[in-house]
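Quick one: structure for this chain?
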Amino acid sequence: MGFFIFLIIAFFIIKSIFFSGGSGSSEGHSHQGTSNGSTYYPAGQFETGFYIEQIHVYAKGPVFTYDTPTIKDECFYVFGEGVLQISNSTGELKIALKKISDNRIVPMHFYINGSYHSVIDRYGNTYAGIDYTTVSVARTAAALLNELEASLVDQHLYNRTCLFLKELLVFNMLVKRKIITSYSNHHITVSNADISTFYQTFDKLSEQAFNLMDKYITEGTGEQREDYITKLLKILELPTDTRDLNVIKNQYKQLAKKYHPDRNKGTEELMKKINVAYEEICEYLKAS
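Got it. Here's what it folds into:
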């Protein structure tokens, strides 16, 4: 995936190019503080549509740009419900976004050049539920980007789409961690305890999001993935159909006691394999 490698480099070059859209708002740097958190207002928006002249890409949808609380010239995206459209002369993408019960914003489905595509759940399967709570943004982003590349769109449209998806994933991470405690199309509230480190946290989560998306983009077919999960579960001495994270966590604790090098000589390598298997299986099953 040459595009994706290029994108990781390009992101750090162009991430400061965020756009005021047509809102005419002067509230971009203002905020109100309380004992529980500080409320910030958007610096700009894509809600009315914006043509990104430098790369000839048009974007329209419920996406709002904010300055980071501590560094004025560094920005991030906040998302709402609705349809996000990203297009240029080489293709058009539409993503239907929904706010679900855990306050994440997740895709419901997407269209590439008019062709319908389903979203992906946290287990790597086509989503078949009704409340969208098990939709994986990272896995769906990977599937979307693979489909987008196959449709032969140009690099500008691909890269801009990936940046929107990365921002969506990071936004959900901030919400899940209660760093952003509430939000709407016109404000966000950031926990006071996280304001001073917001930029550093955002940067760290951005790297995690890129790595997670890259992992799912490059991983194999569903059958290969299931084979890999089976291998991890065997290392953890669990039945190969185990998918309950609580069961996996409890088993890991038992194995850590059973094979701890301080209690059993010669188990260092085995314990390393168990640690890696546990981390990998948790990543697979907890993907956002």
